[in-house]
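agent> step 3/5: call structure_predict on target 'Amino acid ABC transporter permease' (Streptomyces nitrosporeus).
agent> reason: downstream docking stage needs a structural representation; sequence fetched in step 2, passing through unchanged.
tool.input:
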Amino acid sequence: MDLVTGTTPPAPAAPPGGPHAPPAPDDPASLTVVPARHPARWAAAVAVIVLVAQFAHGLATNPVWEWGVFRDYVLSETIVQAVWVTLQLTAYATVLGFVLGTVLAFMRLSRSPVLQTVAWTYVWIFRSIPMIVQLVFWFNLSALYEELGIGIPFGPVFWSVDSSSLIGTIGAAVIGLTLHQAAYAAETVRGGVISVDHGQQEAAAALGIPRLRQIRRIVLPQAMRAILPTAGNEIIGLLKGTSVVYVMAIGELFYQVQVVYGRNGRVIPLLLVATAWYVVLTSLLSAAQYYVERHFARGTDRTPPPTPLQRARHFVSGLRTEAARSAPPLKHPGDSR
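tool.output (status=ok):
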């Protein structure tokens, strides 16, 4: 009598006619695999390629673009200095705006009705007023307050200074951009904080971790994953939004381009210069955003996909390996026989 021992499954039954017999007609393995046809997809791709090629051809051959004028001005001293002013305005407004926005966000999340009301009112007002109106308002601050001072509220003033000498044109632009950016940054930070599970804070409080350390070590590292995409968009929007300060006659990129083409009448190539610089700066900010997001994503993804630079290195390394394999072996001088 045969006994079955262990948990080894029984061997599959051999097909009728032996293992080398042709498959049955109704066997799925006998069906011929035919790739699906997508004629509409191919037609759409061809149409898009034709349109892109036509645009590129017009960009290269249309004399109105005046690429010679573009080459003369794209790296000129005037334009480079204007780009530096644009970067300074963006950096100041970004840092100060997100610092103030973070304070406003935690004011809205506090349990104090006074702080909540003040933060909500700030966000409501500064998101309701267009940026250009705020900039013109701060530019004319000296007409509203001739002097600014420090003293006791509703009492004597110990020290004062002329507001027009304290807040110059650049200062007014930075204040306007910062206050405008802080309103949006507050909502961005608040959205990131409330996206973190509240149970983690309760667990940290049960372990006796101080409130400030909970925010710094538990809440913010997780909230950054939700904050960064929106914050990146805000910073890129702010970079382009600095062009609005042309109303204050500040020599940023768009204002200087206007000045130059107002003198020589070459409007299109000078606008192309400004466009090229904005594209370059936006690309750099996008690359920085990618790597910062990748850094804060390590908490959830221990093995993130390779970066474009790592892929390029891997591709070059693969090419070198293939070239080394296909190269004929070197002959030693003693192997001539």
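agent> step 4/5: record observation. The CA atoms of residues 128 and 180 lie 10 Å apart.
agent> proceeding.
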